[in-house]
Amino acid sequence: MRNPVTSLSSISQYFRGCFPAKNAITTLFLSLTIGCMGVLNTSPGRAQGAISGADYAYTNAPITVAQTPANVPAELTKLVSQIDAAANRRNLKALMQFYSQNFTHSDGLNRKSMEKALTQFWQRYATLKYTTEIKSWQADGKAFIVETETQITGTQTAQNREMSLKSTIRSQQRFENKKIVKQEILAERNLITSGKNPPTIQINLPEKVKVGQEYNFDAIVQEPIGNDVLIGTAMEEIIGEKTLLGASTIELELLNSGGLFKIGKAPETPENRWVSAILMRQGGITVITQRLRVVPQ
Length: 297
What we know:
alpha+beta; ten-stranded mixed beta sheet; three-stranded antiparallel beta sheet
């Protein structure tokens, strides 16, 4: 976090030449959500994959109880499959056709900034694969509200080092007239590893906390450290357009234990934040980021 309870002298230069430049790391995990949310969930797909008005028996009835994946309409299942396929082909033009001009997002994005972030994200990764599962759905008049969970895997080369991405995003989207008009990220975890033997990390962090509430953030290395030198840091970032499209400075610290153990305090206003652990030893580096939702009392 920004003001950790404990801090040690920075030794960012200890592994000079082994650690990628700050922009190569920070823009990776600071752009993961935006890259995932636009292509992984039941959001815009190819034009020919759109749901037409005749595909469903729309009514003006009030919103229904959430339906389970077992009874998802076949056309909705087909649409999600087509969206995944379009995302894997990186067909940005087709995807953006299915965003409403008045599109809003819980991270403060609009249609234009969404397109920019997707472009940047796809340019960074040589390979990407998306798989989406519908967790629940419900009809709201002529609209659909769909909750999904998406897995993304990918690889990127930065400074002649390959980095592997694994990400899980849970989100909710609202469709009106075949376009996504609103999207909210409910939960998110991103993992980036590099090297032959990156640390395996278990993190303990709640998905949401109340405003002003203290919380624990633990990032524990699962393997014995032995004689290895372990360096790392914890970070907390406000999620918004500036952080999604920008980068932050990272300073690593020499760690005298097998991980990071911090206490954070939620802000006094509701908002979303990324909480990240960056841990490195001679065999590799691991960056793990989880979304923290700060909700009203």
